[in-house]
Specification:
- This protein is α+β, with helices and mostly antiparallel strands and 214 residues long.
- It has one domain: Beta Barrel (Hypothetical Protein Pfu-838710-001), CATH 2.40.320.10.
- Helix content is 23%, strand content 39%.
- It contains six helices and nine strands; from the N terminus they run βαβαββββααβββαα.
- The chain has an eight-stranded antiparallel barrel.
- A hairpin with a 2-residue loop joins strand 3 and strand 4.
- The protein starts with a strand and ends in a 7-residue tail after the last helix.
Length: 214
């Protein structure tokens, strides 16, 4: 099982502009359409899970995430992800797949709870992501220091737009470089404001959907 480890910080639009100036040219600019899926009964939301089909510059990826757990400055959660073909994506968007038919190693308890219920699309958000690869601080030889840093501008169904910084930390045995991230924000004059809600949770709120949110 893969574990996602990341820090999310909420930004104002001016914060995002100042931080982008300090970070310099991004390695990539990605345009994402995130489709969220659940059963008609909201089983995934009730169990604290989220299922996302992402279209990104011609690629399609299916991601299942579990409940979030605090881990210092970061949060950790189960994350299962796989590339899917356009045909598979179309079947998902058409409501022709159940959890048990996904090309993912879905946890047994989740598969039992959802059973043969078909998945349906709850809605979609659009996101522009600027990706940076940064060396965060100095460490002894052999210890990782690099992390992927992402600046997101996200459009929600009600017309609202949010900005946030995400720092992905894929090194489970190395301490998260919080001091280096804080120093980066200080150089940009940006406050430290943890983003406590996932994009899925904010999507559900702006769409008027209720139920448990991961």
């Amino acid at each position: 099982m893969a574990i996602e480890r990341e820090l999310k910080l909420a930004l104002s639009e001016p914060d995002a502009a100042r931080l982008a100036e300090v970070l310099g040219p991004p390695q990539a600019i990605l345009h994402q359409r995130n489709h969220y899926l659940d059963t008609a009964q909201g089983t995934l939301r009730r169990l604290g899970h989220g299922l996302r089909l992402r279209e990104e510059d011609g690629r399609r990826r299916l991601t299942l995430k579990g409940p979030s757990h605090p881990a210092g400055a970061m949060t950790e959660r189960l994350e299962l992800e796989v590339a899917v073909t356009p045909a598979d994506a179309d079947l998902l968007l058409a409501g022709a797949r159940s959890i048990g038919e996904l090309p993912l190693p879905v946890p047994d308890a989740l598969a039992r709870e959802t059973g043969p219920q078909r998945l349906r699309v709850l809605g979609m958000i659009e996101n522009e992501r600027r990706v940076f690869r940064l060396r965060l601080g100095e460490r002894p030889p052999g210890e990782p220091t690099e992390a992927e840093v992402e600046l997101d501008r996200t459009h929600y169904p009600d017309g609202s737009v949010t900005h946030e910084l995400e720092v992905e930390w894929p090194h489970p045995t190395a301490p998260f470089p919080e001091r280096a991230v804080r120093a980066l924000l200080d150089r940009a004059g940006v406050p430290w404001r943890p983003q406590t809600k996932s994009k899925l949770a904010r999507f559900l709120e702006t769409s008027g959907l209720s139920g448990a949110t991961p």
